[in-house]
Amino acid sequence: MKRVNKKRLTVTQKLSNITEIPFDMATGLPFIKMYSNRELIVEDAGKLIHYDDCCVKVRQKNKTVKVEGRDIKLRCLANNDMSVTGYITSLSFEQE
Question: Of 59, 58, 52, which is closest to residue 73 (Cα–Cα)?
Fold first, then answer.
């Protein structure tokens, strides 16, 4: 008889499955939506640490989300959600 290798789930994954809460919400990770290269929406964004017309940096628990481009504007910054518009050339995550 063959043994079937079952993938072990973490406690957070099990909790997410039981409560039907999305995994990223259960872990406190940001949820990022990008519409083409013109708009980026970050839910549960964290702390804004840098903003100018070519770069936005937001600090998470142990990461920094960095958005670069031209004519970058913060359209909305409320309730830990933010909307960045402009011509976005890169999105990166920097480990701290």
Answer: 52
CA-to-CA distance for 65 and 26, rounded, in angstroms? 19
User: In the block, which residue shows the tokens 């050339």?
Assistant: 89
How does pLDDT run across 46-92, given as a tens digit for each residue? 888 999 999 999 887 778 889 999 999 988 877 778 899 999 999 99
How far is the C-alpha of 56 from the C-alpha of 60, rounded, in Å? 13
Q: For every residue of the chain, which 3-state class applies, written as one string?
A: CCCCCCCCCCHHHHHHHHHCCCHHHHHCCCEEEEECCCEEEEECCCEEEEECCCEEEEECCCEEEEEEEEEEEEEEEECCEEEEEEEEEEEEEEEC
Distance (Å, whole) CA 30 – CA 26: 11
* Residue-level pLDDT at 25: 63
